[in-house]
Amino acid sequence: YAVDALVTGNRLRASTASSRRGRAPDTDGGPIDGTTVRYGIHPVMEALAAGVVIEVIATGVDRAQVATVVRRATYLRVPVRDVPPGDVDRVTAGARHQGVAALIRPHRYLSVDELRVRVAASAEEPIIIALDGVEDPQNFGAVLRTAEGAGALAVVVGSRNASPVTAAVARASAGAVDRVPVVRVDSRSEEHTSEPPVTSGY
């Protein structure tokens, strides 16, 4: 099967996104007790739709947009806490939260073995995007958004010199982070093999 970008010369190389080496600060507000935090009206609504929210934290619940989030969370039986504005500021590390934040289950990365099973079960030649050195969460989120639009089966990232899945990534991905599987491979082990982990055995 075809891979859009794969391990070449013992290194993951991106063919679909360029790296921004100066990584911007990521105000994801987490982890908190094993969870991470997302903030903002649309990111929280997307997380609710994906079923990954543990709790919603809101302030100014009389505002229309915040009230919409609270109603949706209540409908889905997700706990909601109405708190003073300063509490949301602290949870989100001062990010622009629009009055809402959500505690999210830790992101579950797809394993290489799980990806191989999905590839084997795919009726069509799958698209897999592999990235190297994409450290900026905005760039990573944009790639996930593009990957979803292209119908990619997964996005593969290394464990070093790569942005993890955070609130900033989720925000930039417009919710794609919850719909496109991300596979995180051990970059150190890849330095000692010429066989791409995803394509090995196929």
Give the gist of this structure.
This protein is of the alpha/beta class. It contains seven helices and nine strands, in the order βββαβαβαβαβαβαβα.
List the helices and strands and how they pair.
Layout: E1 7-8, E2 11-12, E3 36-39, H1 41-50, E4 53-58, H2 64-75, E5 80-82, H3 85-91, E6 100-104, H4 112-121, E7 128-130, H5 137-150, E8 154-158, H6 167-173, E9 182-185, H7 187-190
Parallel strand pairs: 4-5, 7-8, 8-9
Antiparallel strand pairs: 1-2, 3-6, 4-6
Report on this structure.
The chain is of the alpha/beta class and 202 residues long. It is 32% helix and 17% strand. The protein contains 7 helices and 9 strands, in the order βββαβαβαβαβαβαβα. A 4-stranded mixed beta sheet has the order 3-6-4-5. Strands 7-8-9 form a 3-stranded parallel beta sheet. Strands 1-2 form a two-stranded antiparallel ribbon. Helix 1 runs parallel beside helix 2 (64-75) and helix 5 (137-150) packs across helix 6 (167-173). The longest helix has 14 residues, at 137-150. The N and C termini lie close together (8 Å).
